[in-house]
Design goal:
By secondary structure, this protein is an all-alpha fold. The protein contains 26 helices and no strands. It has five domains: 96 residues, Serine Threonine Protein Phosphatase 5, Tetratricopeptide repeat (Alpha Horseshoe), CATH 1.25.40.20; 89 residues, Alpha Horseshoe (Serine Threonine Protein Phosphatase 5, Tetratricopeptide repeat); 66 residues, Ankyrin repeat-containing domain (Serine Threonine Protein Phosphatase 5, Tetratricopeptide repeat, Alpha Horseshoe), CATH 1.25.40; 68 residues, Serine Threonine Protein Phosphatase 5, Tetratricopeptide repeat (Alpha Horseshoe); 30 residues.
Length: 454
Amino acid sequence: MSKSFLIACENGNRKIAELLLQQEVKDVNYTNEKGRTALHYAAHKGYLEICQNLVDRGANLDYEDHQGETPLYFATLQNQTPVIKYLLQKGAKTSITDKVGNNLLHLATRNGQKPLCELFLESGLDLESQNNQGDTPLMLAILSLKKMLVDFFIEKGANVFVKSKAGNNLLHLALGSGNLPIIKTLLENGIPVDEPDSKSVTPLQYACYNNNVMLVRLFLEKGANIFLNTPSGLSPIYYVCAHNQKQLVQLFLENGLDVNFQTPSQGAVTVGSYLDFVEAAQDISTDRLFNLSSSYTSGGESLLHIATKNGHLYMVELLLKNGANVNIQDESENTALHYAASCGKKDIVSLLIENGANVSLSNAREQKPLDYANIKGYNEIAALLLGESHSSDSLPKSDSISQKPAQIVTETKTESLSKEEIRAKLKDLKELFEDELISEKEYNQKKSELLSHL
């Protein structure tokens, strides 16, 4: 009879359970193969009268199943408030946690149940309790997008400066969902707007990278520093300019950006040149452009390099019209033409050549733009470059412009090469990969082919 009664509760057969309960149930703490009693299932289903009857007959309030979960835990999973109140009144323990360390307050938070959160706090659960991941109820409210609970926990005095195990603050957690109301609440409660996350990215940099205009506007209103750099030297200015995010550039200008500001890095691109560059492309104020050719990033790239690498044809044209040096070289001695040829930007290659780009200039690896076009298999670009060649120095180092990348890096008969020649090929192959001129897949494939002949 005890087993039949438990099965009726487990399957939600309330009427049958009530009928069986009126008869003799020998063991109210009878368990199934999962270690659960009838009280577990009655609490889970919200059968208050059955729960009361079981408790009156001696059911164990705090009986733990094989997962360590009690009837009160089961009731909380399903937000069974009347049953929860009854079990608490009868003295059920609130210290229970699940296998990942969530207590009853964590569960109620995840389910968005403010009344239950209030009830558990009144029952003595800690507002700052953490699960195995280090999450507090306030953190879970943020991650679960429960704005009402975020407000509630803060009103109750929750620590807004707590950090996750990874070192991220509450604002960083909220950025993942982009929930503007929650982010506003956190900022209003004193969370620093410029504090970087565990990867050294500030909230403003994150918003700029994702082109989130509303968040950028909010962070600027809260005093975010647009000049803060990541360890790689990339500021929000870089993101909005290099990725052609014109609306964000306009927003920076509206917020009083000083176009003559220069970043602390030696030789870095001036903010003025970046912004005038993009601003002019929007036809905001073309007469504010100044000597663009003298501005560099910390990696030695000019604005012309950046515009070319990002495929911004109009930007390249604008720079050239306003005096940018078409043959300016970066720290690796690459010109814009090197990058255009390598990236397959035929229209930019044509524009650069029309404006006097020197097709014969070699970079630090002694590679010309034509070499890169050959390596990547961009035959139309190679033909353009050959048409502008005026000396044998501009000819490709391999036999034909139609030659494929695999033929350039490894000869057809690799087995005929000496060990020294193979090592030299491996070195050249590595340089091509480091210059991002071949993919990782190509690199690994050709490397394996060469190594097989050593």
